[in-house]
Amino acid sequence: MVQKVKKRPNDVLRDSEWTKAQLLDAARLEFSEKGLSGARVNDIAERASVNKQMLYYYFGDKESLYCAVLNRAYEEIRASENELDLEALPPAEAMERFIGFTFDYLTENRYFVSLLNDENVHKARHVRDSEHLQGLHARLQETIGGTLRRGEQEGVFRPNVDPVDLYISIASLCYFYYSNIHTLSAVFGRDLSDPSETDHRRQHVIDFVRAFLEK
Q1: What is the pTM of this model?
Q2: Which residues sit opposite 214 in a β-bridge?
Q3: Three-class DSSP category at 214
Q4: Averages of pLDDT over each 10 residues, the chain, 215 residues
Q5: CA-CA-CA-CA torsion for 165, 166, 172, 178, nearest 10 degrees?
Q6: ∠ CA(141), CA(135), CA(139), 5° rounding?
Q7: Using the 8-state DSSP alphabet, how is residue 123 labeled?
Q8: What is the SS3 assignment for 5?
């Protein structure tokens, strides 16, 4: 199904930004559905309602467009995390907000799971050397680490929890549920995509992590 296209602006600068945004949006859908190998430039251009030559003009080739889609996907989730303002909250509340956000983000942005699955097939070769992405995740590590230190100082979190270890655990608990939701639903005979199931899972993840952290 072709996505709905936003109205095209008249001036040249805004038209350029519109065209790039349309291509990125269309490519995100195409790559998340078919992966890098299965996606086709013609289909992306058609989805974006943009001439195929514009894709080459702005992004060079399909692989460069794929890198741009991955970068934007990471930028969006990290930007949303920054808006949580965890530093302003008591540590236990901050951690609960972060865990809930991580689960909710994957619930609402399932394409992100698919993109990460595909990039792992490619052994992260499109993001491995990105200093930009490393910088984004350094900020994430600092935020989680600061929350953990505050919790330790206030006596509510156990000491010496590594922020990267904790993030990987939180991401795993949320990510695995969605990356394997179809097989898990089939083998356990439960529709895990049902809102009641996702709500239950969300609370389970929060409770699970907090039980580990609480002193």
Answers
A1: 0.89
A2: 157
A3: strand
A4: 49 73 96 97 95 94 96 96 95 98 97 97 94 94 97 96 98 97 98 97 98 91
A5: -150
A6: 30
A7: T
A8: coil
